[in-house]
Amino acid sequence: MKRIGFLNFGHWSEAPGSQVRTAQDTLVQSIELAVAAEEVGIDGAYFRVHHFARQLASPFPLLAAIGARTSKIEIGTGVIDMRYENPMYMAEDAGAADLISGGRLQLGISRGSPEQVIDGWKYFGYAPAEGESEADMARRHTGVLLEVLKGKGFAQPNPRPMFPNPPGLLPLEPHSPGLRQRIWWGAAGIETARWAAAQGMNLMSSTLVADESGEPFHVQQRKQIEAYLEEWNKHDHGFAPRVSVSRSIMPITTDTDRMFFGRDANSRDQVGQIEADLRAVFGRSYAGEPDALVEQLQDDEAIQLADTVLLTVPNQLGVEYNARLLKTVVDDVAPGLGWR
């Protein structure tokens, strides 16, 4: 059995055929797709966060709205770039969204990927400390977030407060118990996966990983997951870890599906230089009739180890199309793989 979620980047554009033409469109349709996905048996609604782009950027109002409109589906991010974040304010927002949803928030965070602008985090008021890299800054922000999510008091109360305080040091509010165990780290390579395990975060592995061996994408991702689980077992975090992988899985059952995704049936892994010092391997897309998808996905070694699979959706095709795509995966692909 596996949890099945969708991952929505929230693109909008005025390109011909786009059903998502404005920022309002992508926000409203993201809520509608989450509601529809819950109805067809999808387990999670996850959203990518990109700044300075015509994509989803501020996740917590969206997650809170989805939490208020749904009752079972997990809501989450995949991922928030911690270089841009005030961890204190983020903890308050995350606590509120989690409480509104009844404890369904799964918060994916990471050091971040290349963005639309140079050093975009500086426009948000952040800069690495002396001797820090931007990756170090992201991890520092993460450390603060993880600590305050424990709900322990740390702030000295005012002796003459506007409202009475409980005794002792004060924590951030609202605090949502259990959220600390639902933080995920988006790791690109084996060492960052080990670091995430040591910190007590779940592992979120995307459709690309650092090309560390030249092996096929799913093999390198499987080795990343194995390293993560090996490191996790060295620590006593008090809960069982979760691991997700993202995949582009497009069942072809209509002529419209074939028009959009038929060419992806012969997709292969690709290698690219996404940063000066980071060569990455991008996983292939899976496209075909449901029986063919079952056969292909059975050979994906990383999927076998993960407990959660996130399906990247072509959100610009609209809610109705994507809800049908997700239902086809749940009804016609997942049972053949033992996911249902």
| Span between termini | 6 Å
Mean pLDDT, nearest integer? 96
Which residue ranges are poorly predicted, with pLDDT under 50 across at least 5 consecutive positions? Answer: none
- Beta-strand fraction estimate: 15-25%
Strand order of the largest sheet: 1-2-3-4-5-6-8-13
Helix and strand element order: EHEHEHEHEHEEHEEHEEEHHEH
Write out the CATH superfamily name.
Answer: Luciferase-like domain
Pfam family, one: Bac_luciferase
InterPro entries: Bact_Lucif_Oxidored (IPR050766), Luciferase-like_dom (IPR011251), Luciferase-like_sf (IPR036661)
Organism: Nocardioides yefusunii
Domain Luciferase-like: 17-257
Structure overview:
This protein is of the alpha/beta class. It has one domain (3-337): TIM Barrel. It is 36% helix and 18% strand. The chain is built from 10 helices and 13 strands. The strands form 3 sheets. It has an 8-stranded parallel barrel, surrounded by 6 helices. A hairpin with a 2-residue loop joins strand 10 (270-275) and strand 11. Helix 1 runs parallel beside helix 10, helix 3 (87-101) packs across helix 4 (134-148) and helix 8 (290-297) packs across helix 10 (319-337). The longest helix is centred in the last third of the chain and has 19 residues, at 319-337. It is globular and about 70 Å long. The mean pLDDT is 96.
